[in-house]
């Protein structure tokens, strides 16, 4: 568990994706308890309403908790979310890209993207870029993206057709590639924001017992998950590093780093390759229309 001083959150606004359960819900709850206005983003309206109620109960009647219901695997929904944020808020102090899935069978979204790639990478890439004006307006802002140790076996496939091919698809490859993309995106974003007041960091939360898997996740993966369950940490423990990156005063000027267990951690060679990061940015810009 990370133990550190935290910035006062009163007057700050934080948006957390995938915040209706697991790590995201804990993160939203704890930020609200510390005084932040929180925007909870989730796909399911009933789960979002329950999350809002739970956060309000934990943080008190004065807590400001907003709900946005969007399926972020579809880029048009990401655009709509960003547009609503720009209309309703004058600044954004903390953006936490937490939403993610463990893929099952190959699924192509109606916009033509492999589901895991769309949810875990294209959505945070797009949302972050579209919200940069609000983040910049905050003066000092933080972008925190949840990655995974699985990135060590990841590799960026530049060709969408190959990524969408049933012959080449594997749930492990899809997940690991998207988590590698999270780190490369963070490093390139930090480079591009070097002269601003916005920092960008990412993290591995640990093996957390959450609802990450989809209903169509393979039986092999489900079996492995059950075997590993006794070794998993709780969502409260899993959210500790996210909260550390969002609130620790000593990280105010730290950017472009990968954390685990509340500390800077080593990541793969691919994840530290600036050429790979730049190439991923070009791929992402082409696939999302957001530069």
UniProtKB/TrEMBL annotation:
InterPro entries, sorted: NAD(P)-bd_dom_sf (IPR036291), SDR_fam (IPR002347)
A Pfam family this chain is assigned to: adh_short
Any one GO MF annotation of this record: oxidoreductase activity
CDD domains per the UniProt record, alphabetical: retinol-DH_like_SDR_c_like
Protein keywords: Oxidoreductase
Coiled-coil region list: none
Name the UniProt record assigns to this protein: Short-chain dehydrogenase/reductase SDR
Protein species of origin: Hymenobacter swuensis DY53
């Amino acid at each position: 568990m990370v133990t550190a001083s935290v910035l006062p959150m009163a007057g700050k606004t934080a948006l957390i994706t995938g915040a209706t359960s697991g790590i995201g819900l804990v993160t939203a709850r704890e930020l609200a308890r510390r005084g932040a206005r929180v925007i909870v983003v989730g796909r399911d309206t009933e789960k979002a309403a329950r999350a809002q109620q739970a956060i309000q109960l934990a943080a008190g009647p004065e807590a400001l908790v907003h709900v946005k219901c969007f399926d972020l695997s579809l880029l048009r929904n990401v655009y709509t979310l960003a547009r609503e944020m720009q209309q309703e808020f004058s600044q954004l102090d903390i953006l936490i890209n937490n939403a993610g899935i463990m893929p099952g069978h190959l699924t192509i979204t109606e916009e033509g993207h492999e589901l895991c790639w769309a949810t875990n990478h294209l959505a945070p890439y797009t949302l972050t870029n579209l919200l940069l004006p609000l983040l910049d307006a905050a003066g000092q802002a933080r972008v925190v993206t949840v990655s995974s140790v699985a990135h060590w076996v990841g590799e960026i496939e530049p060709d969408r057709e190959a990524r969408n091919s049933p012959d080449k698809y594997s749930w492990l490859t899809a997940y690991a590639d998207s988590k590698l993309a999270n780190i490369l995106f963070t490093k390139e974003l930090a480079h591009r924001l070097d002269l601003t007041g916005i920092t960008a960091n990412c993290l591995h939360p640990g093996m957390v017992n959450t609802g990450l898997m989809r209903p169509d996740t393979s039986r092999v993966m489900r079996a492995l998950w059950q075997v590993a369950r006794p070794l998993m940490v709780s969502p409260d423990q899993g959210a500790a590093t996210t909260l550390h990156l969002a609130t620790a005063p000593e990280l105010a000027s730290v950017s472009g780093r990968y954390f685990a267990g509340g500390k800077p951690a080593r990541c793969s060679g691919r994840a530290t390759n600036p050429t790979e990061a730049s190439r991923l940015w070009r791929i992402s810009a082409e696939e999302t229309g957001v530069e």
